[in-house]
Amino acid sequence: MTLMLYDWYHTEMPQLISTYQSAAGEAQDGTPSPDVALINNGVNVSIPVKPGKTYYIHVIDPGNFPGHAWLFDQHPMTTVEIDGVYVVPQLMNNLPGQKPLTRVAPGQRQGVLMQTKNDTSQNYAVFDTMDVNMLFINKGIVPPPASYNPNATAWLVYNDSAPLLPPPVFQELGDTDFFDDVNYVPLDKEPVLEPVDRQIIFNMNEANISGISR
Questions:
Q1: 154 three-state secondary structure
Q2: Is residue 160 predicted with pLDDT exceeding 90?
Q3: How far is Cα 133 from Cα 172, in angstroms, rounded to an integer?
Q4: CA-CA distance, 46 to 49, in Å (whole number)?
Q5: CA 114 to CA 108: how far, in whole Å?
Q6: How far is CA 166 from the centre of its chain?
Q7: Are 158 and 122 in contact (CB under 8 A)?
Q8: According to DSSP H, which parts of 89-193 are helical?
Q9: In three state form, how does the secondary structure of 31-50 look?
Q10: How many CA within 13 A on the CB side of residue 119?
Q11: 84: Cα within 13 Å, side-chain hemisphere
Q12: Closest Cα partner for 209 from 28, 21, 33, 39?
């Protein structure tokens, strides 16, 4: 199955770009904040699954700005592919504790294996949260009021007549609660090409507009 995680804006992109590029500094930090997170083009999406199966799930973040962290409640999963490259299998959100979480960045793809339970008496949440550090905290911006929700929930539905369990609650998430994707190892373990005999340096610069670094 395919699982798409992304940020949604109630304002269309041409206006957002105009605000982003505004010489008057209309965007507080140069990047607009999304209005809501979506899973597979919607909110409260139901994903039917069968018991006792192993699903290959292709996770895609086609979003505009923030990355996403996500998990299947009470369902450990194993990452086996990153951006089209098979990697040494890496177990994620292993029970108990459901950590570490895995992340995808805008434009990134990830392949995971998830085994369903044999019991069909319950349904389970798919938890997703946008990166609030990236959106607000690392830029020194006070997050919006409590009414702003960076999270999204979908459900793995085993039984249409069973209730939809609420998503897990994380009171606090730190750096160590996420798997660092630089630690993935290519499955073929091809060595790094060495020695390096030529270096190419790209200089990337920012423009300062109305006191805002873009």
A1: strand
A2: yes
A3: 12
A4: 9
A5: 19
A6: 19
A7: yes
A8: 132-135
A9: CCCCCEEEECCECCEEEECC
A10: 7
A11: 1
A12: 21
Cα–Cα distances in angstroms (integers) from residue 143 to residues 88, 133, 139, 140, 156, in the given order: 37, 9, 10, 9, 30
Q: Per-residue pLDDT tens for 166-177? A: 888 877 777 778
* Token pair in block for residue 92: 């994620």
Q: Which of 18-22, 58-62, 71-75 has the lowest mean pLDDT?
A: 18-22
Q: Which two tokens stand for residue 133?
A: 């550090």
Burial of 144-157, coded b for 16+ CB within 10 Å and e otherwise, reads eeeeeebbbbbbbb
Q: How far apart are CA 145 and CA 142, in angstroms?
A: 9
Q: Which CATH superfamily is 2-213 part of?
A: Cupredoxins -  blue copper proteins (2.60.40.420)
CA end-to-end span of the chain: 37
**Residue-wise pLDDT tens digits, 92-104:** 876 556 677 888 9
Residue type, 164: L
What is the C-alpha to C-alpha distance for residues 111 and 65, in angstroms, rounded to an integer?
Answer: 21
Q: Which residue has the tokens 């930090």?
A: 29
Contacts of 144 (CB under 8 A, 6+ apart): 33, 136
Q: What is the pLDDT of residues 109-139, one digit of tens each?
A: 999 999 999 999 999 999 999 988 888 777 7
Decide: 48 and 117 in contact? Cβ < 8 Å: no
Q: Output phi, psi for 113, to 5 deg.
A: -105, 130
The pTM of the full predicted model, rounded to 2 decimals, is: 0.83
